[in-house]
Amino acid sequence: MASVTKLRSRDLAALSEFAVSRPSTPEKAVTERRKYRTVWISDVHLGTRGCNAAMLIDFLDHVDSDTMYLVGDIIDGWQMKKKFYWPSTHNDILWRVLKRAKRGTRMVYIPGNHDEIFRQFTGLNFGGVEIRRQAIHETADGRRLLVLHGDEFDAITLSHRWLAHLGDAAYTAMMALNRWVAGFQRVFGLPYWSLSKYAKAKVKNAVEFIGRFEEIVAREAGARGVDGVVAGHIHTAEMREIDGVAYYNDGDWVEGCTALVEHYDGTMEILHWADEMAARSASGVAALAAA
Ligand SMILES: [Mn+2]
């Protein structure tokens, strides 16, 4: 297991210090926040220049929830191993996450492939953050949703189209192979290969790749007997019904800057934060002009 760098206790001690120190970006008043039953975010990629930290800080300062799921690729461990990049705004995000766990938000962290280093802590709780491999979320209207990152399906998503026409036995065998390939990559320290990057490099086929990922994830969720699934990983926010299974993807904070939320009646919505910020500054300008 040479590829998995074990976290040291002083790293964890450093993480817990965020809970007591002050953020460099002051936090806005908690009372002004819109409250949802549940919030899902993923693919933040802290530790990379791609992370849109300012926008995520703004989101966290305007939105609150009873439960929050961090659906993987929150910290980009692979990039940090190559080149250390950690501006104070990235601390400010961790500070806010730990702070809201302390204030009583149930915080569930499901590490993805870029932060798989945290998968070794599955089942543990750090400062009120539960680390899970996947979770079942029950909505206010009684639906059961499987919550997972989604890298579990990379190999099968990329295999040939004819797989879609095979029977369940072949599909199950393919899933086992997929897990084996992922394990092989880990054991031999091979660089993990990014599905979303590959899809984007082949722009012509990107739509097809994304569609295939969505179908496979929904199918797997259906096979497990749940009503729907929430994933991240492909950096493409979506909510649609696939063969009777509700498919949700919370998107990312690199390009799209989106979150998935559940209202108190169980209604689901994708928040596009760039649009929300633009609308807010437009109404601010209008208020100034009227004054
Ligand atoms: Mn991922």
TrEMBL record:
InterPro entries attached to this UniProt entry: Calcineurin-like_PHP (IPR004843), LpxH-like (IPR043461), Metallo-depent_PP-like (IPR029052)
CDD domains, per database record: MPP_YbbF-LpxH
Keyword annotations of the record: Cell inner membrane, Cell membrane, Manganese, Membrane, Metal-binding
One GO term describing the cellular component: membrane
Domain of life of the source: Bacteria
Positions of the Calcineurin-like phosphoesterase domain: 37-236
Record-level Gene Ontology MF annotations: metal ion binding; UDP-2,3-diacylglucosamine hydrolase activity
GO biological process terms held by the UniProt record: lipid A biosynthetic process
Alphabetized PANTHER family for the sequence: BLL8164 PROTEIN (PTHR34990:SF2), UDP-2,3-DIACYLGLUCOSAMINE HYDROLASE-RELATED (PTHR34990)
Name assigned to this protein: UDP-2,3-diacylglucosamine diphosphatase
